[in-house]
User: What shape does this take?
Amino acid sequence: MSIPDPKNRINDLSGREWLQFQKSWFLLEKNPLPEFVKFFTKYQYGDGHRGAIAIHPENATMRELVLAQNREVHQLAAQASQNYVDYVYLDFTTINSLSQLRQQQAEIEKLIDRIERQLRDQCYITIVVNNKHGENGSELVAWEMAKIFGAFFQQKDEKIGCRKTTVDAQEEKQNGWAPHNSVTYFLHFRKEKQLDRKAKIELSQPNSKVKKTPASVVGNFRKAWYVHRPPRRGKGVLLHPAKFPEDLIERYIKNFTQPGEVVLDPMAGTGSALVAALACGRSACGIELNPDFVEIAESRFSKNDPFQLITGDAAKAESYQNLPPADYCITSPPYWDMLRMRGSETQKKRKDAGLQRWYSEDPHDAGNIDDYHDFIKLLQQIYHLVALNLKPHAYFTVIVKNVKKQGVIYPLAWDIVAALKDDFLYCGEQFWCQDDQRLSPFGYRYAWVSNTFHHYCLTFRRDV
Assistant: This one.
């Protein structure tokens, strides 16, 4: 057994044990409560009190799991209580729809009031909750639950629990595409000493684009999560600081299109999506702001290839004028201005190698916008133009990550879905999980910060 680090303020784990928890996704094969308890609490704190946990809903099994870790279990009392707790674990996986969430919102807010009174400052809350996907869109229960708790506590991070896929007969009969329901969110919040509270939390309304009519025929790539290890990048495309792998894109192109159909990427970069489309026997078209990337992309095609690449701004309608209507679009935006953040080991390596560290110096480049809300508005504008260029019932996939900046999580994937509600039906998220990346002990001893090794692959449908 390892000796606890006396400087570790959060738990009794060694640096190696801490590191094992850092990965942002895990296989959900057993109840993870013991691992969360061990990470977010200590057996005994400096003032002599023993680690105390509140669980909801409380049952004998959950209680025994906590007691087995030599922690105490305290109830979240309706009245004032001196039984303070060091960690709260809330299981909301029985809520399967937004209507259920609305029905229980008042009770959830009463529960939050109890947590505020009993949870010690700078301590964590874990919320276990699912989104629910079906042929007529997604019930984004997890994201809406985060909105409720985010009004009272600071969201710090997320982990996703990935279960082996089990598919029922009803799912197999669906007309529209939707991912399997085999991912559970573990959302982490922290109680701050002082945080502005929102007076009222307004939950999102149901998607107005829901239709009962059958959608276009698609393939059967419906895994909610998968591990993908891309091959090493070629020398030419190393110049692009955030290229995504062609063999990953091919999965989506083969699933959502037929041979000969047109695939669009409005932020084409060095042409990965276009190369993948051609490899699948499709036609390809794209827009790219940076002329240097256009030159690299064009060098990857032959004269007879059915592709069209425009040097232009994807946020302007004129860039699409000479492009054909698309049967499918797949793209990946900049992850805000994260490439310009200082302290990135990857960026240092690129600088030392003389490689480009960000997309461009163009002020119109989405990767150069420092205001988050302006950045989301620009993506909304670009994807609205994509919608106008897609055929009816065509699908659209965005590959992106939620981002962490200066201790705050920005749910970029969630905000993109919210921004596109007027143009698309949201079908659901798949997770591209990585297991070939090196873990780093972010926040060691002081705060939990995950190594984000999962990407959101958001898929929409153009229902018009």
